[in-house]
Amino acid sequence: MRELLLARPIRDYAVHGFGRLACIDLDSGHLIGFCGLKFSEELGAIDIGYRFVPECWGKGYATESARAVIDDHVMRHGATRIVAVVDPANAGSINVLHKLGLEFERPLTADEGAGALHLYSGRFGDA
């Protein structure tokens, strides 16, 4: 696990200055998921990602944390294009992306490492 963290999320902070963040429930102190940005080499863009434990789905955590991450990134780094990769059957996640201001761009191709996934994107800041 340590090697995985060093190779991916910690490397993202060292190379790009941003990465994924743990999301902790303030009442219980339990880890409930993650949210954050990473630079996708395959897409040549900054990708917003989030994942929460099932009992936290539908409670607004993804929208709240992703909005905070995007706002912080724009404040620190300026205007930017942010993308998200989503399973087209995941209506909940697509709803979150729409709330954040991302819109459907195109289906991803197999050579982009996807297959049946969709790319959403949005511009943030003074773009």
TrEMBL record:
Alphabetically, the GO molecular function entries are: acyltransferase activity, transferring groups other than amino-acyl groups
List the InterPro entries.
Acyl_CoA_acyltransferase, GNAT_dom, N-acetyltransferase
The protein's matches in SUPFAM superfamilies, at most eight in alphabetical order, are given as:
Acyl-CoA N-acyltransferases (Nat)
Classify the source by domain of life.
Bacteria
Any coiled-coil regions, as ranges: none
- A Pfam short name: Acetyltransf_3
Stretches assigned to the N-acetyltransferase domain? 1-126
Q: Which PANTHER family match?
A: GNAT FAMILY, PUTATIVE (AFU_ORTHOLOGUE AFUA_3G00765)-RELATED-RELATED (PTHR43792), N-ACETYLTRANSFERASE DOMAIN-CONTAINING PROTEIN (PTHR43792:SF1)
Protein name, per record = GNAT family N-acetyltransferase
